[in-house]
Design a protein that fits this description.
two-stranded antiparallel sheet
């Protein structure tokens, strides 16, 4: 892995976690939306992440043990897709609601505030970990430049 690719890895992680926070905020904002542009009740969204480049840990260990170093180009994490949660909607009895069915029940979005809060906290902690790693790489670069003085 090249020294500067560590910056790319941290940046990709920070971008992915920012999107996770944005999706959690969107879910909370739409937790009472019974009508969407596509029609129907809002469905909770979730972010699926995947790693890219870098190979496996076993490949890196094998290359390092042979003294070859490890270089496989750019590596990091990216958003594979944004999926909709297929859990059932919450049924709420409210016969005056314009979207109520013939029995008086309204299908409310399958958004749970507690889950969104936990997802936001997890994304925030992951973002902070990436910032910490980025700062550590930056500090190492500064120290390496001081060696030549």
């Amino acid at each position: 892995m090249g020294f500067l690719s560590a910056f790319d890895i941290c940046a990709s992680g920070m971008s992915a976690q920012r999107l996770r926070m944005d999706i959690a905020a969107e879910n909370v904002a739409n937790m009472t939306s019974t009508r969407t542009e596509a029609g129907g009740t809002y469905r909770r969204k979730d972010v699926v992440l995947e790693s890219y480049g870098g190979g496996t840990f076993q490949d890196a260990l094998r290359s390092a043990s042979r003294g070859l170093g490890y270089s496989s180009g750019t590596a990091g994490v990216r958003v594979a897709q944004i999926i909709e949660d297929d859990r059932e909607f919450k049924k709420v009895y409210n016969p005056e609601h314009p979207d109520a069915d013939e029995e008086g029940y309204v299908s409310m979005p399958n958004v749970d505030v507690l889950k969104e809060t936990v997802d936001s906290m997890s994304a925030t902690r992951s973002y902070e970990a990436n910032v910490t790693a980025l700062n550590a790489v930056k500090l190492m670069a500064q120290k390496a430049l001081e060696i030549g003085k």
